[in-house]
Specification:
- Keywords: Hydrolase.
- It comes from Mesorhizobium album.
- Belongs to the AB hydrolase superfamily. FUS2 hydrolase family.
- A 9-stranded mixed β-sheet has the order 11-12-13-15-14-16-17-18-19, with helices on both faces. Strands 1-2-4-3-5-6-9-10 form an 8-stranded mixed β-sheet, sandwiched between helices. It has a two-stranded antiparallel ribbon with strand order 7-8.
- It has 18 helices and 19 strands.
- It starts with a strand and ends in a 25-residue tail after the last helix.
- The chain is α/β, with parallel strands linked by helices.
């Protein structure tokens, strides 16, 4: 795999591994927003399978999304997204010499792929994964997510930073214009207008009959329809989800059956540097070896010298390196505007990076600190001998322990840490939480069907009971974690090892910023190791505490992300070689959010 830049976006090209290169490739048009976070790893694994079959595959981000330049406010987003698929086809043909492609569309990509294929003679097939029944249905789903996740958070913040130009769904912003353009899409009508193409459609729910694709009889082309088994478990949450291996195998086999016999022509490699230039930043996709390869994006100030030590962003749980609600991309580019370089990465086993070695603990393996140090090595080779680390949730755990073991770390930012020292009680909690999230996804699908036949009363009562059960389980797990932590040999000897680790870190001169959302479970974790009033934490010179009101664990509200970005800029301080402190970004939040 290698990173490439084209049409103001970043893509990841998985080249065929054989010597006899196929004349057909695959372009993968992914999802948007929260669905992209949940499915990005799934699509990376699909691309790997295709490359093993000597089929080059290209993943990429739509304009204004993921790692691409721009944001939600650019006019004509839907047309630009469709054009982005066409640009990906052209780039794959250029780099790999393929004559045509099979288009894979997942969710939003399934809506757009038939439109992108219109008028082209180099699309040889369509694989549509969980396509919404229509653009209108897709917008209804976005609206439902917005009301379920974003609206309650907005009501708690008394309308602070209210987004009136469209909708926020799990923090991802979509303009009114884009919503209206999405509502007009009909992938079945678009597919009916194409020349006869082989198609595989895996539906979320009851499979479509071939003749339900408007205007086409079952004999007009090879049309295969089936259910997307395991879809709810894949899409429940980017950290708790389960990859449906059988679906991966089925998709890879179908594409291999339609790979064609032609041999690739001579490739015409891109002759420009693979850099993405923004108004105040320059970004470059990077791969950090040795295996397992770490995938990331290096962002640096454009046209100015760095003003402070760079930072490395680690994954928040299983969230890919673009960040929840695209928050890591926003933070990196705002830091660049203030003269601070950064590297956002996927640790092995997450996002677009290689699979981790067998036997690794999911997210909380202590050996992962060596992967973080590999990223620090890369930054040192790029000319940055010292760095800061930024981690949310599980990323905070990895940042903390990497900082303890690597003296090149000068600043440490921990956002909503749920664990400082791993033990069996945390493993139990994670297992219970993942079971809850995946079962909730299945119940949600069943509740939707029940709603159609019996009305909304039953799902509502089920939701109340589920929340009550979750609260009871949560309290029990917190009691177990506290008990196990107190029974640890270090605790029995009165050593308070986590507190000692923090004191040693700050004694070395590392500046620590500890950020928590109001009411977050991380507060219990901090109290477990530093006292209920955090009195022992407050006595450690070098630790700064920040509390974010009206924010959730993943910083979904826009104002909370802005507050953290402002703090990151301030936390960078002045480098020892004399560079001046960068001026903070003006935060679109109340002053109380910036008070320690």
């Amino acid at each position: 795999m290698r990173g490439i830049v084209f049409a103001d976006t970043i893509g990841w090209l998985h080249e065929g591994k054989g010597t006899a290169r196929r004349g057909r490739g695959v372009v993968i048009a992914g999802a948007h927003g929260h669905e992209d976070l949940c499915s990005r790893r799934f699509l990376r694994l699909l691309a790997d399978k295709l490359a093993e079959n000597d089929l080059p595959a290209l993943q990429f981000d739509y304009p204004g999304c993921g790692n691409a330049a721009g944001d939600h406010s650019t006019p004509g987003q839907v047309q630009r997204w469709t054009g982005g698929i066409g640009a990906a086809i052209d780039r794959l043909k250029q780099d790999c010499g393929v004559a045509d492609v099979i288009l894979v569309g997942f969710r939003l990509g399934a809506l757009l792929a038939p439109l992108a294929a219109a008028g082209r003679d180099d699309v040889a097939g369509l694989l549509l994964l969980a396509p919404p029944s229509s653009g209108k249905a897709y917008v209804r789903e976005i609206t439902a997510m917005s009301r379920m996740i974003d609206a309650p958070l907005a009501s708690r913040s008394a309308g602070e930073g209210l987004f009136t130009e469209g909708r926020e769904a799990a923090g991802f912003r979509i303009s009114h214009e884009t919503l209206a353009d999405l509502s007009a899409l009909d992938w079945r009508h678009a597919a009916a207008s194409l020349p006869s193409l082989p198609m595989l459609v895996l539906a979320n729910g009851k499979p479509l009959a071939a003749d339900e694709i408007q205007g086409r009889g079952a004999g007009a082309a090879e049309i295969t329809t089936a259910e997307f088994d395991g879809y709810p478990l894949l899409m429940c949450d980017p950290t708790a989800n389960r990859i449906p291996a059988a679906v991966l195998d089925r998709c890879a086999a179908w594409i291999a059956d339609h790979a064609g016999e032609a041999i690739a022509r001579k490739a015409m490699p891109h002759d420009a540097s693979e850099t993405l230039d923004g108004p105040h930043y320059t970004e470059k996709p990077v791969l950090i070896g040795p295996e397992p390869m770490i995938c990331g994006v290096f962002c640096r100030p454009r046209g100015r010298q760095a003003a402070a030590e760079p930072v490395i962003f680690l994954n928040a749980g299983g969230v890919p390196h673009v960040g929840w609600a695209r928050g890591t991309v926003e933070a990196a580019r705002d830091l660049a505007a203030e003269g601070v370089a950064s590297l956002r990465i996927d640790l092995p086993g997450l996002g677009l990076s290689d699979q981790a070695e067998d036997g690794r603990l999911f997210l909380y393996d202590g050996r992962t600190r060596h992967d973080v140090s590999r990223a620090i090595d890369w930054m040192e080779r790029a000319g940055y001998p010292a760095v800061g680390l930024v981690g949310t949730c599980a990323g905070a755990f990895q940042a903390f322990h990497a900082a303890r073991n690597d003296r090149r770390v000068r600043t440490l930012t921990m956002i909503n840490p749920l664990c400082f020292a791993w033990n069996s009680s945390y493993a139990l909690e994670m297992a219970v939480w993942k079971t809850y999230e995946t079962s909730k996804a299945v119940l949600g699908q069943n509740a939707a069907a029940m709603h159609e036949s019996r009305g909304p009363a039953a799902p509502t009562w089920r939701g109340i009971a589920s929340r009550h059960a979750r609260l009871v389980v949560r309290r029990g797990l917190e009691a177990i974690k506290s008990t196990v932590s107190m029974l640890h040999p270090a605790a029995l000897l009165g050593q308070r090892r986590v507190e000692r680790w923090m004191r040693d870190l700050c004694g070395r001169g590392v500046r620590v910023l500890l950020v928590t959302s109001e009411g977050d479970l991380s507060l219990k974790e901090i109290a477990r190791h530093f006292g209920s009033e955090e009195e022992r934490l407050g006595s450690i010179r070098g630790v700064t505490r920040v509390s974010l009101p009206n924010a959730d664990h993943t910083l979904t509200p826009y104002h909370s992300r802005r507050a953290v970005i402002a703090r990151l800029i301030d936390h960078g301080g002045i480098r020892r070689d004399g560079y001046a402190r960068a001026e903070p970004v003006r935060a679109t939040t109340s002053p109380s959010l910036l008070a320690p």
